Amino acid sequence: MRILLVEDDLPLARALHQSLRTEGFIANHVADAKSALLTIDTNECDMLILDLGLPDMDGLALLKQIRKKNVALPVLILTARDSIEDKIKGLDQGADDYLSKPFDVNELIARLRVIERRLGTATSSTITIGEVNLDCASHELTVAGQLIELSRKEFMLLKVLLEQAGRIQSREQLESKLYEWGEEVASNAVEVHIHHLRKKLPEAFIKTIRGVGYSIKASTNIES
Fold first, then answer.
1. Among 9, 49, 57, which residue's Cα sits nearest to residue 28?
2. Cα(188)–Cα(201) distance, rounded to whole angstroms?
3. Is 51 left (phi over 0), alpha (psi -120 to 50) or beta?
4. Do 107 and 99 touch, CB atoms closer than 8 A?
5. Residue 222 — very low, low, confident or very high, per pLDDT cuts 50/70/90?
6. 127 sits in which H/E element
7. Which of 46, 101, 162, 210 has the most crowded Cβ, counting Cβ within 10 A?
8. Helices (H), the chain
9. pLDDT exceeds 70 at position 219
């Protein structure tokens, strides 16, 4: 899941970015409303974390514009405005959730997972296909009951493929879900991760559709 963090407090943004990466999210950051709108227009995010005190526009005014462009984009407001009236305004403008500063990062992650569950890509779920079981909360993979070690990128790639089981994912689609802005991506990075994953999974579990991309046969159980 690609999260866009709209926050002008740079030290806070850097700390949040690291926490989101640790939890397996792809996180990008902008510090003003104009940049946020440009990013949303190019469909480069699946969820928004929005500060209200932005330098070029009030966050609620930005949220109103976002809802005109994209009714379904999940938005979590993260702000120092903590009155009941502020929360009501934020939710009435179309926010999915509202968290006041200061906050516990674990609570933020938990709320993001709730939103993910609504989108059908819950990191707190276990995804099972045949003998392959991926616990997205603990980042643990078991194959036929045996625990298999995964790198961060391998986990993220396998999670995307399992969630999209039965659908073909192109290399470009996978890259957009694995790498953040400015992160160096080798031309064969996805192929290399697929190669390493195949060594850890049952034979022919990940199928290559030549000239198109990769797919896993659909037969998925997802448990919260």
1. 49
2. 20
3. beta
4. yes
5. very low
6. strand 126-129
7. 162
8. 10-22, 33-41, 59-69, 84-92, 105-119, 152-163, 171-178, 189-200
9. no
pLDDT of residue 123: 42
Residue pLDDT, tens place only, 129-148 = 889 999 877 788 999 999 99
Which CATH architecture describes the domain 126-223? Answer: Orthogonal Bundle (1.10)
Q: Please check whether the domain covering 2-119 is classified as CATH 2.70.150.10.
A: no
Torsion of CA 41, 42, 47, 48, to 10 degrees: -50
Residue ranges, CATH 3.40.50.2300, the chain: 2-119
CB 134 within 8 A of CB 163: no
Q: Cα separation of 216 and 205, whole Å? A: 6
Comma-separated ranges of CATH 1.10.10.10 domains in the chain: 126-223
Tell which phi-psi region holds residue 185, choosing left (phi > 0), alpha (psi between -120 and 50) or beta. beta
Structure tokens at 185: 């991506």
Is residue 124 classed as helix, strand or coil in its secondary structure?
coil
Instruction: Output the pTM of the full model.
Output: 0.62
